[in-house]
Amino acid sequence: MRQRIAAHPVPQGPVTRALDIRADREPAHLSGPDSIAFSIETSEGSVRLAELDGRYVSTEVAGGFTGRVLGMYVTEGSVAFDWFDYESAT
Question: Is it the case that residue 28 has pLDDT exceeding 60?
Fold first, then answer.
């Protein structure tokens, strides 16, 4: 299944995209296992494209889903990935 959540035009040339995964460690505030936010960097700053409740890509809701895989790919045209960086918040 594929679903487009958001779209934003970007100029030709390099584009920086970000995926932020945040978990609230306080059980009283926990509405799901985490929050997943997608954004891009533009000349005006960061543009948040979408933020999703992590429950919808977890075993509790997705029925048998056992994990997440993070990767980069393109569905149209061509692309060259210069770098990938993973930073832990802690």
Answer: no
Residue 24, pLDDT above cutoff 70: no
DSSP 38: E
Q: Which two tokens stand for residue 12?
A: 């030709």
Of the two residues 75 and 48, the one the predictor is more confident about is 48
Contacts by 68-73, CB closer than 8 A, 24 or more apart: 70/19
Count CA atoms within 13 Å of residue 87 on its CB side: 5
Task: Quote the CA–CA distance of 65 and 80 in Å, as a whole number.
Answer: 30
Beta strands in the chain (DSSP E): 16-22, 35-42, 45-53
Instruction: Give residue for tokens 């060259």.
Output: 80
CA-nearest of 40, 39, 67, 65 to 52 is 39
**37: exposed, middle or buried (C-beta count within 10 Å: 0-12, 13-18, 19+)?**
middle
